[in-house]
Amino acid sequence: MTRTDPEATESRLFEAVDALLNDPQASRLPAPAERTRLREAAGLPPSAVAQALATTAQTVRNWENGRSEPRPPRRQAYQRLLETWSERFPAPATTVAERTAVPAVAVPPRESVAAVEDGPASEASRSSSERSSAIETPVPRDNPVGSSGGGSRCFPSGPLAVLDGDGTAYGAGGVKLRCPATTPAQLVAWALTESGLGSPRLHRFGREGDPLVVLTTGAAERLGLPGTLRDEDLHPGRRLPAHHVDLARRTQRLPEDHRVVRQLRKAKWELTKRGFGPWARIYRPVKDGRRQCVQLAIVPWGALDERFWGDAATLPAPDLARVLGVYAVRVLTPRGSTAVTGMELMTALRPPSRPVRDPATCAWVSGANPGALTAAVDPAPPEATPDHPVAEGWTKGFLDEEACQWIRPIETVTDEELVQPYAVGLDLTTAFLSAASRLDVGLSAPVHENRPRFDKRTPGSWYVDLSGIDLDPRLPNPFTSCGKRPEGPAWYATPTVAYAQELGHDVQPIEAFLRHESGPYLDPWHDRLREAYVTTVAEAGIPVGKDADERAFLAALAAHQMLRTSTGDLGALRRALQDARLTDLQRLDDDRLLAAVQRHREIGIVLSAIKGTVKGGIGKLRERAQGVGHRDFQRWPALNRPTWRPDIRAAVISRARVNMHRKMANVAKAGGRYPLGVLSDCVVYAAPTPDPLGVLPLTGSGRVLPGTFRLGAAPGLAKPEGVQAMLWAVELLEHSPQPLNPARHIKGGDSVLDEGE
User: Fold this and answer.
1) How many whole angstroms from its chain centre is CA 466?
2) Bridge partners, 464 (sequence order)
3) Which terminus of the chain is more exposed, N or C, with fewer CB under 10 A?
């Protein structure tokens, strides 16, 4: 029995209770995996939690992956937040299966690179490899509407489902639904009324996300859809002429007279102008203030572009649902290509309008949302494409703010560089995303001014002569995309002119088109994509902290790439792991090693899609005219979007190119090394070792010098891109009839120039 304290008083009792509440052991928090699930169910990034708790996003991530535990008073506040979320977003009825943990790669003493031994650990001291990931293998379960499965209270089944041929629909978080539909019309009705699919709005003035149903080959057959978008499949048995033009394949949609399209029309459903193609949007007019729209993604028709989704189309339906679900929760439910999704994410995070009260009638009406792009505006002539209507009759040239592609003249390569054994490539992670951070862009129409005074705080296009600036020929010229000196006055975006001023030159603009209303429009877009990328990288066991050990980063990145690119040949993989001295990974049994390969493969797919969203979203700001019927100086549909803003695209690419040049100049100043070639965000150097630490200037503590190519996983930091023999690079520089760019081929193939398109 417990003895009663006869001297107990109210104040002493309250003090004892307060002490108990402040005891970290008494206030037990959910497991790290559950903390992540609850936050993602609420649709918030770690940065939002960090802001509420007056800490950093990295600290919140550490709490979620078990690296550290919060201390009072944040612990109590965090516990209250999690308890509230637990009530709103109950845990799934069936527990998630214990996944195969992948040992985190650590850097022990210099003689070897080994992994942390995988073993039991407390919730407070788990390694990054042991934390639960959204990319994990859940036990499929039947999920009646109303139970939780990676969704919110309004959308309990999550943002999307992958429909298989047997009528099973797999959702995010292990959700498994039964879909009885056998026609597209029935499928749309099911998605809107029974599935519980959808996603919450990302901004209070935005709209909720429409359900997405992804169709596998079996599901397409079940719904009566052809296996491919080719006329021979659309019209089986019909004899086609010898020189038949395959219209379905060319237009990437079903013809209007196809029976599936007719069925939808008969059921009073409508299609958008892009028709019934790989990404079909099917809708009815708004009813009672609610949208009635469903997005279909048809995998066998090429909905998942392998340039950005890798081999996602080959994944089994539950695995594909897991990959797409992670992307949807962290970025946005896919609404087409990654480029389309990147553009629509901008609008979802900064909607163009908001409700305002009309002072005359006191009624709520639609008004402009401050800080957003609220209406379509024509660009200034130099900002437009040459076929744009405003460019008709324009003769003063156009902006050339493109990614740099430059080859160093072979005659400037020194003997000391020629005898180096290696050519090492470095790549800036999502350079365009980093460039978009805290970038002021124009929110209004351009205003023409003559002889303006340059102000780096004013977004716009400046006509200025930078040809007289002498720079080191061993570096690309930062003012042109080709890396050569300008040949007279030209148009430049604000970041380019600001860099000329930073280099100590007095710039005197001749004229300019300026936007005096400006703001960091892309900031929410940058923050969400950055958080998505960093969170996903961390799940691969790669350190993402600002002060992460660079050798640990390189070792973990090598392990991830080895597992991600494995073909399933365990013998070859074990030999590669042994060569890389990743002994703990090598010691995993076959089942756990195969599970690790699958997990890193899925992580790689999500990372590739996020990068595609960044590149494509920036490119969509200057979407070109499409179709054989377009004529110069005619308007095309994209021009009617508020987000058709080539000036913003130019500013982002200009800033990315300047950032790259600044790092190269700092490497040259500190270490006397100059690049052999540059392609967008990739640079190649002659090096004494295959390790990038052998080419970069280091501080006295052995870390990469700030201001150069700091190594790390976060956007704007550098990672190895590839290694080749220096003789290989010299052969490219001496190639006839014209030299070839080592940065294009450093990975062993032919890298695609990333122009942000």
Assistant:
1) 35
2) 490
3) N
* CA-CA-CA-CA torsion sign (224, 229, 232, 238): positive
Nearest to 329 by CA among 33, 36, 90: 36
In contact, 541 and 95? CB cutoff 8 Å: no
User: 677-724, pLDDT tens digit by residue?
Assistant: 999 999 999 999 999 999 999 999 999 999 999 999 999 999 999 999
Distance CA 345, CA 44 (A): 15
Tell me how far CA of residue 22 lies from CA of 345, 441, 596, in angstroms. 41, 47, 39
Closest CA to 462 of 434, 493, 438: 493
Q: What is the pLDDT of residue 346?
A: 97
Cβ-count burial of 160 within 10 angstroms (0-12 exposed, 13-18 middle, 19+ buried)? buried
d(C-alpha 135, C-alpha 324), whole Å = 10
Token duo for residue 645: 């803003």
Residue 533 CB neighbours (<10 A): 25
DSSP secondary structure code for residue 711 in this structure: B
Distance of CA 93 to the CA centre of its chain: 32
* 708-740 exposure pattern, b = at least 16 Cβ within 10 A, e = fewer: bbbbbbbbbbbbbbbbbebeebbebbeeeeebb
Q: What 8-state DSSP symbol labels residue 406?
A: E
Show the tokens assigned to 301.
Answer: 């028709």
| 124, two tokens | 């407070």
For 498-517, the pLDDT digits (tens) are 999 999 999 999 999 999 99
215's tokens? 């169709």
Please report which helix (H) or strand (E) contains residue 725, including its range.
strand 718-725
Tally Cβ neighbours within 10 Å of residue 678: 26
**Sign of the torsion formed by the C-alpha atoms of 24, 29, 31 and 33:** negative
For residue 489, CA distances in Å to 383, 422, 492, 493, 558 come to 15, 40, 9, 13, 46
* Burial bucket for residue 340 (CB in 10 Å: 0-12, 13-18, 19+): middle
Q: How crowded is the C-beta side of 674, counted as CA atoms within 13 Å?
A: 18
List Cβ neighbours of 485 (8 Å cut-off, separation of 6 or more). 467, 469, 471, 477, 479
- Minimal CA–CA distance to 249: which of 314, 301, 296? 301
Lowest mean pLDDT among 131-135, 327-331, 666-670: 131-135
Q: Give the model's confidence band at 138: pLDDT under 50 very low, under 70 low, under 90 confident, else very high.
A: very low
Mean pLDDT (the chain, rounded): 86
Tell me the per-residue pLDDT of 539-556, one tens digit each, with 9 for 90 and over.
Answer: 999 999 878 899 999 999
Assign 3-class secondary structure to 358-375.
CCCCCCEEEEECCCCCCC
What are the backbone dihedrals phi and psi of residue 572, each rounded to the nearest 5 degrees, phi first? -65, -40
